[in-house]
Amino acid sequence: MSDQAQSSQLQPLSNLAAALIKFHEAVPTIHDNSESHFGGFANLPGVLSNIGPALRTAGLVVSQLPENVDGQPGLRTTLLHTS
Questions:
Q1: ∠ CA 23-25-26 to the nearest 5 degrees?
Q2: Which residue has better confidence, 13 or 51?
């Protein structure tokens, strides 16, 4: 494989890595906002509202779609980047 072809294959990964670094630098600390029998936890709406702005700023999006896994209902989570 030529150096140019290899470089073009690595570019999307490099872009994703840079976006993930940007995301981690921008996302605030997520605090517990719900209680259960076993103690406090951060619920999904609380987590998503905290990470949403940092994801968008970094050009990232999380997609969650239902999926059949070995005949059972499942959920596939995918991280996408604008590159």
A1: 65
A2: 51
Terminal Cα-to-Cα distance of the chain (whole angstroms): 22
Find the mean pLDDT for residues 50-79.
Answer: 95
Grade residue 57 by pLDDT with cuts at 50, 70 and 90.
Answer: very high
Between strands 60-69 and 72-81, the pairing is antiparallel
The amino acid at residue 52 is G
Dist. CA 43–CA 59, nearest whole Å: 24
60-69 vs 39-41, strand pairing mode: unpaired
Burial label for 59, CB within 10 Å (0-12, 13-18, 19+), is middle
